[in-house]
Design brief:
By secondary structure, this protein is mainly α. The protein contains 20 helices and no strands. It folds into two domains: 216 residues, no CATH class; 238 residues, no CATH class.
């Protein structure tokens, strides 16, 4: 857990610091142009992975033919995806009405085939729980590519600084992964192994495609109906809010997935582990997101210049929407652990219809209404996820809500304390400091008085 946290938070933290510095050299419009292309890169990367990572991690013993088949599939799909994206670039530029997106997309999508080279190596290291090596690789890639991006931004390269930063990051990461995890499985393609892998993974790929499409549909629609500047403001608020929530959830997911898989068919053991991971992750992520929402105005005033201040109200709403990420992710992960990827896919389809309905209502009302729709979507989808997964861990909606209720109450108290303390001073940095001390102090004190076990478990690195 510690190495996984370092790998995710360390890499994301460095990337975030780099993006803040680059925001002082680049305008919201330039970030908005890159944000318009993220959906195409994300969808292509999902197709490249094809669910292979989870399919390989789920198997206790992997045969060399499995790894070789998976790699050849990944690389083939990655190259085909880049050719399609390269050809589609002029159409994408016309769709948005931004001609400069054509060459930008043709360069930035080089990240797709480079990502294809990382899939099997990442799965091998994850299955072996070598998160220390993953941390060293990711941190090195982010630092080197970040330095390149900053140098290009200072030289006045504009949006191309962001493009080459992303491409170089994936290139360096793939190179380092092949160095720390040399390829020894030969080059064999087995139709039997391919059918076995795809039989499990295609449903995960379908669910991931739907999730990625609808997660990224927000910048697509905002880019289509609003200006690149507004798209950049939304992208900044959204990526800033997603950083702690998605990174922490990813840490928990990567450790909990193999852990719960080892529980086998023991339902009581699976229930205990699931509730412990759920409680620990909620105890950490809930207060972080709530306090960030309470301090949003001061945070944007301290970190960003004048042209980014309009993103603060959007950031506040998205923080509340992403606060529930760990609960969503763990409930869905449980379906994959028990082999019910069909239910995983069905759930994603149901929730995407809900997303479409909410977007139809909120898009004509403006960007802030779209963010409120994201919050409503998260709240409505939560009991749906809990109901389906609860049957496989004897932990349905009622039990999970009762289990999380004390954490939610303490989170509310901490957020109120943070907001009250930050309002006492006008200096942005001092406001953040007072708010954090008050919010986290009240939260930790309340947890100690309520005798909640999560702080002790985190301190001892035990689930």
């Amino acid at each position: 857990m510690a190495w996984s946290a370092l790998e995710s938070f360390g890499s994301s933290g460095v990337s975030f610091v780099v993006s803040i510095i680059m925001a002082r050299f680049l305008a919201p419009k330039e970030f908005g142009l890159v944000a318009m292309l993220q959906v195409f890169i994300a969808i292509a990367c999902i197709c490249v992975d094809s669910g292979m990572t989870q399919a390989l991690v789920r198997r206790p013993e992997r045969r060399p033919q499995e790894e070789s088949t998976a790699l050849l599939l990944n690389v083939s799909v990655g190259l085909a995806a880049y050719v399609l994206l390269f050809a589609a670039a002029p159409w994408v530029a016309r769709f948005y009405g931004e001609p400069e997106l054509c060459p930008l997309m043709q360069v930035i999508c080089l990240a797709v085939p480079l990502n294809a080279l990382c899939v099997v190596q990442t799965a091998r290291l994850t299955s072996d729980m070598r998160f220390d090596l993953l941390f060293k690789v990711s941190a090195s890639a982010v630092l080197i590519s970040g330095a390149l991006g900053l140098a290009l931004a200072r030289m006045g390269c504009g949006v191309w600084a962001l493009a080459w930063q992303q491409v170089s990051m994936w290139g360096i990461r793939s190179m380092l992964l092949w160095i720390v995890s040399p390829w020894k499985s030969g080059w064999v393609f087995s139709r039997t192994e391919a059918r076995g892998l795809l039989g499990f993974s295609w449903k995960l790929m379908g669910a991931s495609l739907l999730d990625t499409l609808w997660t990224n549909i927000y910048p697509v629609l905002i880019g289509k109906f609003f200006t690149p500047r507004i798209t950049g403001l939304f992208w900044r608020a959204n990526s800033f809010a997603l950083l702690p929530a998605s990174t922490a959830t990813g840490v928990v997911h990567r450790v909990a997935y193999p852990l719960l898989s080892r529980a086998g068919n023991s339902a009581p053991r699976r229930k205990i582990l699931f509730l412990r991971v759920l409680g620990m992750s909620a105890w950490v992520i809930f207060p972080i997101m709530a306090i960030l929402a309470a301090l949003s105005g001061s945070i944007f005033e301290a970190l960003f210049n004048e042209q980014w201040q309009s993103a603060a109200p959007l950031f506040r709403i998205i923080c509340l929407a992403t606060m529930l990420y760990p609960v969503h992710a763990l409930n869905l992960m449980l379906l994959n652990v028990v082999g019910r990827s069909d239910l995983f896919l069905r759930l994603e389809v149901i929730k995407k219809f809900l997303t479409v309905a909410i977007l139809c209502v909120t898009v004509p009302m403006g960007v802030q209404a779209i963010c409120l729709g994201m919050l409503a979507n998260s709240l409505i989808a939560l009991p749906i996820n809990m109901w389906y997964s609860g049957r496989y861990a004897a932990s349905g909606i009622t039990l999970q809500f009762r289990f999380l209720f004390p954490t939610l109450c303490l989170t509310l108290l901490g957020a109120l304390a943070a907001a009250g303390a930050s309002a006492l001073v006008s200096n942005a940095w001092l406001s953040i400091l007072l708010g954090l001390c008050a919010g986290l102090g009240i939260y930790i004190l309340g947890s100690a008085l309520a005798r909640m076990p999560w702080l002790r478990r985190l301190a001892s690195f035990k689930i």
